[in-house]
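FYI - complex with NAP, inputs then prediction.
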Amino acid sequence: MSNRELPATVDIAIVGAGFSGLGMAIRLRQAGRSDFVVLEKGDAVGGTWRDNSYPGAACDIPSHLYSFSFAPNPEWTRKYSPQAEIYEYLRRCVARFGIGEHIFYGQQVTGARWDEGAGRWTVDTEHGSISARVLVWASGPLSQAKKPDLPGLGAFEGPVFHSAEWDHGVSLAGRRVAVVGTGASAIQIVPAIAGEVAHLSVFQRTPPWIIPRKDKKFGGLQRWLFTHVPATAKLERALTYLRLEFIFGPALFGRNARTLATIRERATEHLTSAVTDPALVEVLTPDYDPGCKRLLVSDDYYPALVRDNVELVPNAVASCTAGGVVDTEGVERPVDALVLATGFEVTDPAFAGIIVGRGGRSLADEWSKGMHAYLGTAVEGFPNLFLMVGPNAVLGHNSVIYMIESQLNYVLDALRFMDRPGIGSVEVRTRVEEAFREEVEADFAHSVWTEGGCGSWYLDRFGHNTTLWPTYTYKFRGRTRRFHPGDYTVASPARSEEPVGATAR
Ligand code: NAP
């Protein structure tokens, strides 16, 4: 249900109240802007951290870095905070920065059209329409659950739920459970439920590389220091950033042989310290470069796999029956409940179908041969639209909050430019976007994602990596520090033929 009526017009409409939508709202308020709304489909803020409440959910990036630099939280209780703490942090940010009045809940956006005559976006929700000069799309890259199209799934008689749609009304205690998948979500779910279920079958299609997480509690003294000597929290954040950027970066971007070998060694040691059965070690050992699929961190996944009531099935699930699941070897296992930890639809997002830009062309049309956006943010044909964590702005090695804050800087600077008299719309130029795409492709050429020997959700159906930023994040920060009007075609509010301050495309 919607909490209140939408205004008819607004300067800026933000879609989504997760990390990036809230970050945008906070930065707008800090910049003295108040003519904006946040349209949230759910009844609470938090996005990913509201939805992914499965047992064991926690962030795999340390919390002092996985939080806003402008809203440090000295009270993180652990190095890797659990979901509830991150969710609470985001809710506190709403109160702390006074943005609650801008958030409209229960407003699932059903369409967004660029009105060329008016030079504005018309955004339709389930409960009304709103006209906005600027549209910031912040629905999150990992918000659309991907469920496998398994024959017989509809006939399965027990509860079935996706990791991002956990049904907390269902008790798994004493039941036979199957977890499908062994990605970042599954390796947190498995140890969290292994102790309570009667039997757990973990279906692994491809083994992941897993290194120790080395999670730790922050004691009272440490939290006191983070609170009263803020430089210590800043140092913690900076050291984490540098470690992730410069230890993992070279391995991922350029397949640095030494670093890859070190990661393999550490991961193998980690595996064999918990699993002694050589046959199990073999099926748990990946045959591709670490990082090609997301490199996972865990302290308790392997120990959970060797429990008496847990079985690793080294096959994909092929189909379901009324009372079980059948693997690709044709073996059926009786199961009472099924957990689909099968990831998200990322490279072909549904939202692209509902965003219609200049000339009635949808973003899905524009992306029919693969997603693309200049600096992960702007797409030619879609004036005044800014995508948050858009194509090639996701990360495989560092905190996505750093990317989000870079984009916030960029959008804020774009808005400052757009405040100048006589400016109605900005639209990235074709050649600028094309040059950027070529650059990204070249950066990927010798990376683990291209040459690492695996398939992953980072790649689209054409085999292109349209999700990740291909190189160091500080380079993204540098590129997004300033909005360069020369990269854009700038039109006056009346949509005159003569662009202001720029030549025609
Ligand atoms: P994911 O990485 O896409 O993993 C999906 C898993 O399902 C893969 O292991 C996949 O196997 C498997 N799968 C799909 N269909 C299957 C079938 N029929 N039978 C057996 N296995 C099947 O999804 P995710 O684990 O939800 O993670 C997605 C991303 O979300 C992560 O990469 C990360 O960026 C983010 N995430 C972060 C955290 C965190 O911070 N802690 C936690 C969760 C997620 P294949 O590998 O063979 O495709």
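The first strand starts at residue 9 and ends at 15. The pocket of NAP is lined by residues 58-60, 142, 148, 163, 180-186, 203, 205-206, 293-294, 316-317, 341-344, 457 (CB under 6 Å).
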